[in-house]
Amino acid sequence: TMEERMNVAVEHIKLMIGYKGEYTGVMEARKHLAWYIQGQKGAAAAREKVNRASNINELQNIVDEYLQNF
Questions:
Q1: What is the crossing angle of helices 22-37 and 56-69, to 10°?
Q2: Per residue in 12-48, is it b (16+ CB within 10 Å) or e — as a string?
Q3: Dist CA 23 CA 32 (whole Å)
Q4: Which pLDDT value is given to residue 70?
Q5: What pLDDT, in 10s, does the model give residues 39-64?
Q6: Which residues 6+ apart lie within 8 Å of 10 measured at CB?
Q7: Contact at 8 Å (CB) between 63 and 25?
C-alpha cells in the first residue's frame, strides 16, 4: 500500500540523515522521496514541496499531508 511505501521512505530518510547528517541527508532524501511517489496520484505537487524541504520535519509533514490526500 502507499502507506507502507511511505513508511519505508521515512525510515530510509531517517537512516540517511543518521549516516550523512541532516543537511546532506535531506538533500539526498529529496531525490529518493520523489522516487517513492513516482507515478502516483498527486506526485507532481508533492515533488514540488519535497524539493523545497530543508529539514526532516518538513519532509515528514509533506509525507503526512500526501498520505492524507492520497
A1: 20
A2: ebeebbeeeeeeebbeebbeebbebbeeeeebeebbe
A3: 15
A4: 84
A5: 999 999 999 999 999 999 999 999 99
A6: 59, 60, 63
A7: no
